């Protein structure tokens, strides 16, 4: 227990009881947007994801002879397409979608 005359006990909702100095204020909830970015890219980010997909598929037409490169390029392009479709499905079924 800390019983110093220049401190006071405060009850913080959702937290344990704390001890705060007299000239200070208790810790308050801070929204993540206030100290860092936690948002999504938005509709333009989703639309611009098509550009890397097109670049990956355009690299199929090159001077390489093996098919291993083609498999990797198609795999990465398919992964991006799957992520776009999953995001669209998640947003369609979301309670709050932007």
Strand count? 2
Q: Going across the major beta sheet, what is the strand order? A: 1-2
What's the gyration radius in Å?
Answer: 26 Å
Average pLDDT value? 77
> What form results from the Cα inertia axes?
elongated
What is the SS-derived class? mainly alpha
Strand content: 5-15%
Helix content: 40-55%
Number of domains: 2
Note the run of SSEs as H and E.
Answer: EEHHHH
Task: State the end-to-end distance.
Answer: 48 Å
Describe the biggest sheet? 2 strands, antiparallel
Number of helices: 4
Can you tell me the residue ranges where pLDDT is under 50 for at least 5 consecutive residues? none
Task: Write up this protein.
The chain has 98 residues and is mainly α. The protein folds into two domains: 1-36, no CATH class; 40-93. 47% of the residues lie in helices and 8% in strands. The chain has four helices and two strands; from the N terminus they run E-E-H-H-H-H. The chain has helices at residues 32-35, 42-48, 50-58, 68-93, and strands spanning 7-10, 18-21. It has a two-stranded antiparallel ribbon with strand order 1-2. The radius of gyration is 26 Å and the shape is elongated. The model has no long low-confidence stretch (mean pLDDT 77).
């Amino acid at each position: 227990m800390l019983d110093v005359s220049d401190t006071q006990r405060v009850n913080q909702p959702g937290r344990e009881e704390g001890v705060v100095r007299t000239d200070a204020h208790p810790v308050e909830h801070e929204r993540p947007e206030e100290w860092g970015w936690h948002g999504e890219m938005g509709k333009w980010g989703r639309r611009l994801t098509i550009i890397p997909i097109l670049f990956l598929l355009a690299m199929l037409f090159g001077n390489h002879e093996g098919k291993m490169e083609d498999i990797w390029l198609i795999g990465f392009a398919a992964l991006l397409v799957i992520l776009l479709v999953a995001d669209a499905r998640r947003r369609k079924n979301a309670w709050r979608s932007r």
